[in-house]
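Researcher: Next sequence.
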Amino acid sequence: MEWRERVAREKRAAFAGETYWGRPVPGFGDPAALVYVLGLAPAAHGANRTGRVFTGDRSADFLWGSLWRTGFANQTTSRHPGDGLRVEGLWVGAAVRCAPPANKPTRAERDACAPYAAEELALLDRVTVIVGLGKFAWDAAARLLGVRPLPRFGHGAEHALGDGRTLLGCFHPSQQNTFTGRLTEAMTDAVFSRARELVDAAAPPARAGTR
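Model: Next structure:
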């Protein structure tokens, strides 16, 4: 908490004229979501500045670019609330709701924020696919879902939960991953295309005479 508020006071030079959000960041998306994406934590000068998860930095644009290409979003960028971004069939949250130092949340922070993510997921009662962005979020999602032992994380990893839902793994779209080529656009698109396949497979067949 102290860190997120200090960042909001001191600011980055490029955003010196802006008012930072500097509070816990809620999830964002379609309340009727079928896919729930769980990220790591708000970026100090991204979501902690704008107040919307995965908004205002390069990681955000990388993620939303993929969500646009796979049909979940109406645009490729997420710059600030009110920028026209709309999401269909998907919700994005974070395992930790406050920006942590060096973008490295602790297990204690994860556990303190877990009830918020659990309540969010419970309210999104149509979700059939959960995507964990990075091992930290993958493990947090597995804990939320009561999976024991924790399944092994990997990019493209897939774990059936036994209740019709599926946990998918994706490398986090951090600059450390995207700038080095560890995570590419094609790799990210493959995960969200798979999420769409699973959602479509889980959908009940249309009744005769309906559209």
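Model: The mean pLDDT is 93. Residues 2-202 form a domain with the Uracil-DNA Glycosylase, subunit E fold (CATH 3.40.470.10).
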